Amino acid sequence: MINSPLSVNSNVNLIESVSVAKMIDQWQNNYNIDISSELKGISEIHLYECCESKLRFFVPFGLTGSGQFYQQLQQFNWYYRNDKWEYDAAWQDLQFCTKILEVGCGTGYFLNRLKQRGECDIYGLELNPEAVAIGQGQGLPILLKTLGQFVDEQDHSFDAICAFQVLEHLGDIQDFLSDTLKLLRPGGKLILSVPNSQSFLRFAKEDLLNMPPHHLTQWNQKALSYLCELFPLKVIQITPEPLAKYHVDLYLSTFLARFKQYPRLIYSPLFRLTHQVIKPLLKKSDFLRKQIVGHTLYACFEKINQQ
Question: Residue 199 gets which letter from DSSP?
Fold first, then answer.
């Protein structure tokens, strides 16, 4: 029996199955990364959707990428971006927070931004040793520890905990969220960002970065809202990102991929129109990009005081 890792409910539907051998070849060809040891002994992975929470998740469970896998991804300059839209959204929600933890902080760009603001007691957790070393070299308080290890060392007085693009990488969602709530004071803020599976990403077939060993779950607004049914949380906001300038190429390539099976007489003019007209317009116009739902969902929750 397959149970959702969020609702722990067996009312789930199989969405698709993917050949692991094919994935291994694609990772090697596209990124020059060998993932065979990450998925050793597995011939297929299966994507399911929980009918109750609408969370999508991959089976077998426990296919979290290793530290070596993430170190290899770090070689790409797009992997740890410093200009994420959700950083600006969180900046507003953290205005009156003074004790802040960022889980999965990478090299510490956002922590450094908080540090420059001053009057903040900041902490960062990261499992990539190279990223930790870079952050510590900049004088940032980043620890090479899991959230579970950190919980045992701290009191429960954090004003805010942030996890940007982290939740989708985890196999132990319930444990992770339980630990964050142990650290948060009543009224404290839990800030999450995840790829939005209802954005243009839903048309990206065989998107290697959106499946194990990279992403183990796929989130949408319903799945994020469902957290309030499981934990003492209330929603402050759940907001979709407008299409970011740095995602225009990905958005258009995903759009064009849907027409590749069309006759060349149709596809070729569409390809030229997309690259010669639509792409320059989207890169130039903030207004046009704001009309398109982008890559990320941003969520801010408040911890409810339970009597």
Answer: S
